[in-house]
Amino acid sequence: MKNLHVAIAGATGAVGVEMIRTLEKRRFPVSRLTLLASSRSIGKRLLFHGEQIPVQELREDSFQDVDVALFSAGAGASKKFAPFAVQAGAVVVDNSSAFRMDGEVPLVIPEINGNDIRKNRGIVANPNCTTAIALMALHPLHKAFGVRRVFAASYQAVSGTGAQAIEELRTQVADTVAERPFSPKVYPHPIAFNVIPHVDVFLENGYTKEEMKMQNEGRRILHLPEFKASVTCVRVPVYRAHSVAINAEFERPVSIEEALEALRAAPGLKVVDDPANAQYPMPVNVAGRDDCEVGRVRLDCALENGLAFWVAGDQLLKGAALNAVQIAELL
Ligand code: A2P
What atom in ligand 1 is closest to the CA of residue 37? Predict the structure, then answer.
């Protein structure tokens, strides 16, 4: 592969910084790296392979000679600027929700539907982080037994909201312990020593937009238009890594042995399932790791052909930066 000119839009954000690290770690063939953010970040410098790279303002003319543009600056910035990147000849990998439901734009998890990339017309979308982590475990089970529907609850880390939410949790924990008053800014309620069953905006059906992503994006990624997912998304006081409790119902009879075999063979997934020795996936163990972990696999006692399991993954990596760079590698 020839060396490429890569641009990162949203380079100063929680995901942007991980994109830089992931390019380094995976030795992506970069000839030049252009870092883009809002005008607030002009003057900042970020390290790439030991070199200080200045951050520039994201503008319509930022993409001259760019081969690959990784976008993680929010849906508004993607809608506004991604078309200019495509026009300039770049392939865009977009981490926002801007194009995920656009039939012309492939929505891709390389381990699951990498072939869909071939249909791209300049933009490939990266799925929602909670959906990506859940599907890493659900897809191998789907291949083994044919999934019909899932019920799930997520336990989502604050870094999914962005850098300012990490700061909010840190200061609120200190304020709460010191019994100092504070007023929440990022979330509508305190996130320290609390859980908030509210991620993203509420829709008319009573679910949030985030909750419906597992069904809507899952259908596209699994190529399963009838797939159903009833999800409750919860923000928890964890810095990094999302977890999801899933109850899945399948077409065919299931067994634990076959389920574990399918999960063990899945790329990007590690089975951690030894309850007797208190071994199961947890955010503290997957934070900073590329692989997602699955455990607590058991026959669901309330569903026919059902399995209950628990999956955890670093949403900044598999849920965002790593998946985006893996897509760029395929491209
Ligand atoms: P900046 O740091 O200059 O505000 P996070 O999700 O961690 O909050 O990060 C969001 C990223 O997207 C940051 O790099 C932020 O830049 C960038 N960003 C947000 N809105 C825009 C915009 N309208 N134009 C360019 N960059 C943006």
Answer: 26
